[in-house]
Amino acid sequence: QVQLVESGGGLVQAGGSLRLSCVASGRTFSSYAMGWFRQAPGKEREFVAAISWTGGATQYADSVKGRFTISRDNAKNTVYLQMNSLKPDDTAVYSCAAARSTIVVVNPFIYDYWGQGTQVTVSS
């Protein structure tokens, strides 16, 4: 099976930037589509961004499009989420996920493996 560990979260001022990382182990990393989701206290989990197993296709939530960029480095078994122009509404626990799919996946129910998450807090 696949294990996923996120890092890079923290406290940042509005307008600042953070880069989240997710390191995968246990299976062939390039065989999985990858995604990022977030969940704020008292709210449902929300799709953020996803990338195909080759890195050739990406999708973003409308709320982050133009500000966030998802990428992957299969040689390092790592997927990244570069977050720029952060807003207080971006405050949440961010989790990465892996799906056994050849195409980009946005439906959370299709994902097979999930990380524990990393906290991102944006102050005004």
Provide a quick synopsis of the model.
With 124 residues, this protein is mostly beta strands.
Quickly count the helices: 0
Mean pLDDT: 94
Helix content: under 10%
Low-confidence stretches: none
Shape: globular
Structural class by secondary-structure content: mainly beta
* Rg of Cα set: 13 Å
Order of H and E elements: EEEEEEEEEEE
- How would you characterize the largest beta sheet? 7 strands, mixed
Q: Using DSSP, what is the number of strands?
A: 11
Strand content: over 45%
Distance between the termini: 40 Å
Overview of the molecule:
Helix content is 0%, strand content 49%. It is built from no helices and 11 strands. Strands 2, 4, 5, 6, 9, 10 and 11 form a 7-stranded mixed beta sheet that branches. The radius of gyration is 13 Å and the shape is globular. The protein starts with a strand and ends with a strand.
